[in-house]
Amino acid sequence: MKVLMLGLGQAGSKIADLFLADDRKSHVPHTFEAIAINTATSDLMGLQHIPQEDRILLGETIVKGHGVGADNRKAAEIAEEESEIILNRVSKFDTSNIDAFIVVGGLGGGTGSGTISVVCKQLKKIYDEPIYAIGILPAETEGDIYTLNAARSLKALLPNCDATILVDNGAFLRSGESVREAYERINTEVVKRIGVLCRAGEARSRKDVGEMVVDAAEVINTMKAGGICSIGYASEIIEREGFFTSLFRRRQYQIGKASRIISVTKRAVKGRLLLPCEYRTAHKALIVIAGPPDQLDRNGISKAREWLENNISGTEVRGGDYPLPKSSYVGCVVLLAGISNAPRVKAMLERAKMVQQKVTEGPHKEKDLQFLLGDIENLQL
Ligand SMILES: Nc1nc2c(ncn2[C@@H]2O[C@H](COP(=O)(O)OP(=O)(O)OP(=O)(O)O)[C@@H](O)[C@H]2O)c(=O)[nH]1
Ligand SMILES: [Mg+2]
């Protein structure tokens, strides 16, 4: 699958940079191309892999390269004003070859939060390819303004893109750890999981072609469920048996492979999802089993699909394999699309409404914050 990624604000451009770093390691042909967009010069300078000409500084005459300081309205206005600059840069890529756009940003800050829905909307006007968003939700500890920003940003985003993968910064925090300390780990999880989904169908050599290939169409059809999506991952190390032992235990060994695939799938779904949610409420799903070719048992993959089909609200579960000859793990990535119950999102919206009320009724000082508020009353999820 060929993806053009647009990384917005600091979180977004750092994650897009990491996708490019991972993609350029060894994978040929490339899956990802990336553009970084920010209102802060210093954040753009800190990137390592996105070429200079694909780093766009917005709002230079307004904020002088210093960022918008969590004012997501200002960021949205700047993106509307300067959308030509973004679209021009996008058109420099061979867009006829692209299967999807992915736009990524932190929803709690200013730049990523304000520009994400505007960028999706502008792309949608011009391109027929699907536009997906990755939205980073602030952890609860990040404060009221970030919660408000994220609620407003999500409300603007959902109708302007084809589906939104949410990532909850709070879900990945270890006890006593700050959000900042967890960034690297969270970003790596995002890149690993989405990287597998997007790369699974890309054959690199003849022996790496899967028997049950997950191509771009499988991902796109799953994402057609729309709305909010989450992604799970789990893996298991393979204990290699000696040749003679495995000959004697051939049948048992086959069963072992199939049951490993089923158990790793269950763990992926029930373990730490990018957005904690009730997986049973997903409308569609996609499973990718990655690992050495001799471990990718067809029967196991079918059984894992069947199990998930019986356990989500919809009936469409796609699945396939992703051969990684040198791997010593069997891993499973599960995409859950069209989730209708995400308590984390509900809690965030409830808190945003309370903050909005507090600010509106509060003393004069808090009223200064009113420019940050929008109407979040009607956000239906
Ligand atoms: N997972 C993850 N979250 C991040 C990272 N950097 C920032 N964030 C989160 O993203 C949200 C927005 O922060 P930034 O990306 O710094 O904000 P911005 O879009 O640059 O906006 P302004 O700086 O206000 O213009 C916050 O909730 C941060 O905690 C990162 O590398 N990884
Ligand atoms: Mg910033």
Brief rundown of the structure:
The protein has 381 residues and is α/β, with parallel strands linked by helices.
What can you tell me about this protein's structure?
The protein has about 375 residues and is of the alpha/beta class. The protein has two domains: about 5-200, Tubulin/FtsZ, GTPase domain (Rossmann fold), CATH 3.40.50; about 230-335, Tubulin/FtsZ, C-terminal domain (60s Ribosomal Protein L30, Chain: A, 2-Layer Sandwich). The chain contains 14 helices and ten strands. It has helices at about 10-25, 40-45, 60-65, 70-80, 85-90, 110-125, 145-155, 180-200, 215-225, 245-250, 250-270, 300-310, 345-360, 365; strands spanning about 5-10, 30-40, 55, 100-105, 130-135, 165-170, 230-235, 285-290, 315-325, 330-335. Strands 3-2-1-4-5-6-7-10-8-9 form a ten-stranded mixed sheet, with helices on both faces. Helix 6 links the parallel strand 4 and strand 5 (about 130-135). The longest helix has 21 residues, at about 180-200. The radius of gyration is 21 Å and the shape is globular.
